[in-house]
Amino acid sequence: MKKLSALYIVSVLFLILSPSHSHAKNYSVCTVEIPGGMTKDKEGPQPLFNFYQEVIKRISDKTGHTFELQFAPSLRCQNLFFKREIDIIWPYIISGEADRFKEAGYTFLPIYSMPIIMGGYYIFTREEDPVAHQVADLEGKSVVSARGYGIPIELEKSTNITKSITNGNELIPPMLLGKRVDAGIIQTGWVPTLREQGLLEGLHHGEVIDFWGGSFTFYPDEEGVELMNSFSNTILELVTEGKYRDMMTGAPYYIPNY
Fold it and tell me: Using CA of residue 89, residue 253, residue 103, residue 123, what is the dihedral sign?
């Protein structure tokens, strides 16, 4: 009887201390194609996708959760998330400004894992025109940006700059060179690819403006907090093991100096 009792206690303790997959769920994840970092066809370097796969594998091994990834334009991912039709978006710009979300018609402020990438915007102008170092240099001019990739806050609020939107970052340089607009706003992560394609010839830019961090993004509820903690802890594991920097080398964004 004593042996049976001891065995029972050990069994109970094992069940309590072992990770449980009884509440495992399937989560939907939406992301964007980032040339040189992560693409649906997996052609070219894939540092962001490889990083994503490693994070997901580790979390799945611990929790039993599964994650279904879909690629979509940035704005579509964002709208699906705020309609609660998908569970996670990444990499998404971290913002603590509730007013920006309210102005966009969204009803909640999301929560984020620790940052994965960092970036900002360049203001591109034609080489024969002065370099624009800040949004104030664009007063009275026309500016184009890519749909779904955001714009600097100062530009968003300006009433003295004519703003237009195109469907892709690769369409901005031709509009500038064709003198259809005075300046173009391009996220830093897209610049290496556009330069490699020769699209930036005849254009120049100043320093990075409106610097931001990007991360996995979740709903601000108990389940979202649990996921946020799981993702942040897993990213931290990769950092402390030295694997984060190795995996992200060559990614088309700045990476935090962890």
Answer: negative
| Tens-digit pLDDT profile for residues 88-124 | 999 888 776 777 777 777 889 999 999 998 888 999 9
* Percent of all residues in the chain with a pLDDT value above 90, rounded to a whole number: 62
Residue 176: name the closest of 153, 199, 151 by CA.
199
121-149 tens-digit pLDDT: 999 999 999 999 999 999 999 999 998 78
Greatest Cα pair distance in the chain: 91
- Say if residues 88 and 28 touch (Cβ distance below 8 Å): yes
Please state the separation of Cα 141 from the chain's center in Å. Answer: 29
Going by C-alpha positions, the residue among 124, 173, 172, 121 that lies closest to residue 146 is 172
Summarised one tens digit per residue, pLDDT across range 158-195 is 999 999 999 989 999 999 999 999 999 998 888 988 99
